[in-house]
Design brief:
This protein is mainly alpha-helical. The chain contains seven helices and five strands, in the order ααααβαββαβαβ.
Length: 185
């Protein structure tokens, strides 16, 4: 009879710096090295690591202890790989003006921590290029897009671990505002 084995969870010391940074969502592991920071960013964006590491497989096989530690230090929040590979849906939009590119152009939807990625919003240049019939709107600095916070999302979906809600500061339940990049204005 064949026995299915669980993946081996390595200790943090056995991971390369950029893998440890990716799994822990802590860039202090790659501080001082722009190359390792770029490798971490690339993996967070879904690309393979420099040695061919698959980010989703790394998270599925090794993420549990990193998630527990992250929650211990950051109640009401989740690390980037969790949002990429486990979040059941994006965070809810509560209001504001601005259109993600993926809603009106042939762009792939990109999310960061459950929100449309900072690079993926319609700009005034887009509106001018596509003309009067274009449905996209740039972020309005006086009425920017607003989304539920990570804590509100996790609470709404019943994803908080036992005892976590009590440790979340009230301010972490406040909605999150998306601001335009300087390039978007």
């Amino acid at each position: 009879m064949t026995t299915k084995r669980s993946p081996v969870t390595r200790t943090p010391k056995s991971f390369k710096q950029y893998v440890l940074s990716f799994l822990s969502d802590d860039d202090s592991h790659v501080a001082g090295s722009e190359w390792w920071k770029m490798a971490t960013w690339w993996m967070r964006s879904g690309g393979r690591g420099p040695a061919g590491e698959d980010p989703e497989q790394l998270w599925r096989e090794n993420g549990a202890p990193f998630l527990r530690e992250y929650i211990r230090h950051n109640p009401g929040k989740r690390p980037s790989p969790w949002w990429s590979f486990e979040a059941p849906e994006p965070r809810r939009r509560l209001g504001g003006t601005g259109t993600p590119c993926s809603e009106v152009l042939a762009y792939k939807a990109y999310f960061s921590y459950g929100l449309p990625g900072a690079e993926g919003w319609i700009t005034q240049d887009d509106v001018e290029m596509y003309g009067d019939d274009f449905e996209g709107k740039p972020i309005d600095p006086d009425d920017p897009p607003v989304f539920e916070s990570q804590a509100s999302y996790l609470d709404r979906l019943g994803l908080l671990v036992p005892g976590e809600r009590e440790r979340i500061p009230a301010a972490d339940f406040e909605p999150e505002v998306v601001e335009a990049n300087e390039d978007d204005e």
